[in-house]
Amino acid sequence: MHCLVSVIDPSAKRRVRWTPQAASTAAVLMALDGERTLEGRFQHARRCMKYDYRARRRTGATYNGLLKALERQQDTVLPVVKSALRGHVQRRRRQIDPTGRWCLLAVDGSKEDLPRTQDHETVFGIADNGIYPQAFITAIVEVHTGLLWDWRIDGARASEKHHLLDMIPDLPDDTLLLADAGFVGLPIWEKLHAQGTPFLIRVGGNVHLLTDLWPQTQIQQKRGIVYSWPYAARRTSPPLRLRLIKVGSGRKAVYLLTNVLDPRQLPKNAAGAIYRKRWGVEVFYRTFKRTLGCVKLLSRAARRARIEFEWALVAMAIMTLLGIDALVKRRRNPRRFSPAQAIRVFRDAVQREPSSWHTLQRALGQCLTDTYTRRRSKQSRHRIVTTNTPTIRLRPPVVRAATAKEQLYALRYTEHMAA
Questions:
Q1: This prediction's pTM
Q2: Which of 202, 215, 249, 284 is deepest in the core (most CB within 10 A)?
Q3: Interhelix angle for 63-96 vs 38-49, to 10°?
C-alpha cells in the first residue's frame, strides 16, 4: 500500500487512528483471511499489523471503527489504488509476454450472493436465483497475469454492457479487448472503434450484418468485410465496417467480429488462439469465488457489503502481484503461478504470528501449479442451475447482402467511409 503513503483522510474532523494506508492494509488482510466471521478476520488482521508504521502509533481497536474509516475514505482511496494497480498490470504483462503486440484484456460479468437482509434486497435486489440478493460485477482482467484492470459493482439487474461503456475510456492504448456474446451491439463497437481500441468479440444469431453495402473488391470479400448498421441508427450514424472471422467448423464453429480489418495484423489462426485466452477472466472469477472463498459476502448492510466486495477484489490483485514478483525473482515461469497455494500462504501468515517479509516471499516463490497434462476439459462442479438459468447455444450471425435501397441510403456516408 505504498501508493497511499501521502493520501490523507479528507473527511476526518480530527486525528484518526485508521489512516488510509492502515485501513486499506487491514481490509486487504481481512479479505485474504479464511475466518468465517468478519470480527475474527479483523482480530487476525489487527494482530498481524500491530502498528500503523506511517503514523508510528497503534491502530484502532474496533471493527466498527475500521468500517467507518473505509466508508469515509473510499472515494479518495480506491481511485488511487486502481491507478497503481493499472501501472503494475502493464509492467507485469511485459514481463510475462515481452513480445506481445497487444495488452490482452478480457471483460465479463458475474453475480455475487449476499445475505438475505432487507437492506440488501432494497439496494441490490434479487436477480436470476430468485432467492438471495445479489450484487453484479463487471471486471476487465489481463489474461496472461489474471490481474484486474478495472471493475464496476452494481445491483443485481445491472447491465454489463453499460458497465463496459463506462470503463472504455480508461483502457490502455495497446489494448485488444476480448469479450463473449454478451457484449454485442453498435454502441459498444462504435465507442471502442472511435477510441482506436481493437476488439475481438464472439457473435451469434442475435447479430445482423450486411455485405455489399458499397461495391467491394475481391480482396475485401475474401477478408470477410461486413457492416453493422441497425435500422434505428441509420439517420444518425454511418455504417461500421468490421471483419467477420469464422474459426473451426461444424457445430464447433465460432464467429468472431473485429475492427482489425487487415488479416496481416490479425490472422485467422491468431484470432482463434487469442480468443481462447479470454478464458482467463473465467478463471479469475472461479479463483475469486471458490478458491478465495468469496462466493457469498458476509456483511449484512449494503454499504458495508460494497466495501467488503471492493477490497476483496483489491486483495486478489495484490496477492497475484506479489506471487508473480516472487516467481520472477526466483527465475521461475510466472505463468505457473498458483493462486490457491498463495492464498494458503497468506492465510497462514495472517492467522499466525507475523513472519518476516523475506520468509513470505520465499513461500510465495514456491506457489507453482502442477505440471501434469490434462486429458479432458474441465467441467463445472459448483454452478447451481436454476429454472431461470439460461442455456445459450449460439447460432451463426445473420449476414445478408444489402438491398438497393440500403445501398442508395448509404451514399450519403461515402466520404466518411472513404476516410
A1: 0.91
A2: 284
A3: 70
Pairing of strands 134-142, 147-154: antiparallel
One-letter identity of residue 74 = Q
User: What average pLDDT does this structure show over 313-320?
Assistant: 95
Contacts of 120 (CB under 8 A, 6+ apart): 114, 133, 300, 302, 305
> End-to-end distance of the chain based on CA atoms, in angstroms?
47
Name the DSSP letter for residue 368.
B
pLDDT tens column, 370-415: 877 767 766 655 555 555 555 556 789 999 999 988 888 888 877 6
CA dist list (Å): 45 to 31, 83, 269, 353, 363 = 10, 25, 49, 11, 19
Alpha-carbon gap, residue 249 to 247, rounded angstroms: 7
DSSP 397: P
Q: Provide the residue ranges of all domains of the chain, joining segments of one domain with +.
A: 181-257+380-419
Angle between helices 20-32 and 302-329 (to 10 degrees): 80
3-state secondary structure of 217: coil
For residue 342, the SS3 value is helix
